[in-house]
Design brief:
This protein is an alpha+beta fold. The chain has eleven helices and 17 strands. The relative contact order is 0.14.
């Protein structure tokens, strides 16, 4: 069960972009598991990818193709990650691109492949290739909701977000979908995500905006501290709308804010739908000496199994939080008497120990909530960062113990 409300919006259609989804039976018969996204000629595309050294075959090929030609098609399969599959896996990714290119009349290098699912198994190529014509036939500008469902793995809900802003008096639209529920740790973009706009953007600015917004969204979430082999996030611009450029700072700021709202909404949905999650938690670190210090402390707390299991138990075990703060990188000379810790607005810790005003009843009341904040003030400077995470439940172990069965 997801934490809080996760529902798909009424997606803004993006001029020039179409999505098609079908069931190819890649892992389970009858399940939507194959998605094709079509871009118009003249579209722009920027991507960020996993930093895992064992990156999947489709990631290797997508990065190569992205450097070679402007993409016209994306193809995404779920049920099989095509990772840890050696030369055969790479050849299968290439064959997928060749076959889709033949169906659509483009070059194979204009197709970007993406896969998600079980690692270490070869793709069932006959079923995947047989599904491509149906996915192409299903292409429609209104295909966002079906595509969101078609890229899910252990997700319990499809994830999508949409926004708009006005540039030069015209409406600019942004829509996106993502998948992710486990193997989520910041090291790029931490999932599969596809976000598109009808704005016209210079390629360099597109890359810049993707990096900036990823750093403030997908690179600020963690579920279990594991970085996948397949993480990829694409920002697509059909260039059918008004131009967004640095020459018009107000327009650029409006577009950046709308894009960030979509990116953050998708990122938060991933955390809310974390495998077995029952709580959505913001870890705020303030008064840090630097941004990196704030992030190091926030992630150490957010990754701690002891903190996460206490959250699941609704146990205000503040000692676990302090222990995580104290072992974070760079905290060797931390003046503990300067640290304060809050649960939402309830003061837990001050001057090196439990706050005099704190009661277990106060802490327990906050911990019973499905959404809460751990607020840590280090007393070392003015930098601040937020990270979003969830708890660890029995279901997380069950889901991952049974993943291949």
């Amino acid at each position: 069960m997801a934490v809080g409300e996760i529902s798909l919006p009424e997606f803004h259609e993006i001029s020039g972009l179409r999505l098609g989804t079908t069931s190819a039976g890649i892992k389970k018969p009858g399940r939507k598991d194959l998605v094709v996204i079509e871009l118009p000629e003249g579209a722009s595309c920027a991507g960020v990818f996993t930093l895992n050294s064992f990156c999947a075959a489709p990631v290797q090929l997508a990065k190569e193709h992205l450097q070679a030609d402007p993409p016209r098609y994306l193809v995404i399969n779920t049920g099989n990650a095509n990772a840890g599959t050696g030369k055969i896996g790479l050849e299968n990714a290439k064959l997928t691109c060749v076959e889709l290119a033949a169906l659509t009349g483009v070059k194979a290098s204009q197709v970007l492949p993406f896969s998600t699912g079980v690692i270490g198994e070869q793709l069932p190529m006959s079923r995947l290739l047989e599904g491509l014509p149906a996915a192409v036939s299903a292409l429609t500008a209104a295909g966002w909701a079906e595509a969101a469902a078609g890229i899910m793995t252990t997700d319990t809900r499809p994830k999508g977000a949409t926004a708009s802003c006005h540039i030069q008096g015209q409406e600019v639209r942004i829509s996106g979908i993502a998948k992710g529920a486990g193997m989520i740790k910041p090291n790029m973009a931490t999932m599969l995500g596809f976000v598109a706009t009808d704005a016209s953007l210079d390629q360099q600015l597109l890359k810049q905006l993707l990096k900036e917004t990823c750093d403030q969204s997908f690179n600020r979430i963690t579920i279990d501290g594991d970085t996948s082999t397949n993480d990829s996030c694409l920002l697509l611009a059909t260039n059918h709308g008004p131009e967004v450029s640095e020459a018009a700072p107000e327009d650029l700021a409006a577009f950046r804010q709308a894009l960030l709202s979509v990116m953050q909404e998708l990122a938060w949905m991933i955390v809310r739908d974390g495998e077995g999650a029952t709580k959505f938690v913001r870890v705020e670190v303030a008064e840090a000496a630097s941004q990196q210090e704030a992030l190091d402390v926030a992630y150490t707390v957010a990754h701690s199994p002891l903190v996460k299991t206490a959250l699941y138990a609704s146990d205000a075990n503040w000692g676990r939080i302090l222990a995580a703060v104290g072992r974070a990188p760079g905290m060797e000379n931390l003046k503990v008497e300067g640290v304060t810790v809050y649960l939402d607005d309830v003061l837990l810790v001050e001057e090196g120990g439990r706050a005099a005003s704190y009661t277990e009843e106060q802490g327990s009341a906050v911990m019973q909530q499905s959404q809460l904040a751990l607020r840590i003030h280090l007393g070392r400077g003015e930098a601040r960062e937020d990270v979003w995470t969830c708890d660890f439940s029995h279901d997380y172990v069950t889901i991952n113990a049974d993943y291949r069965t």
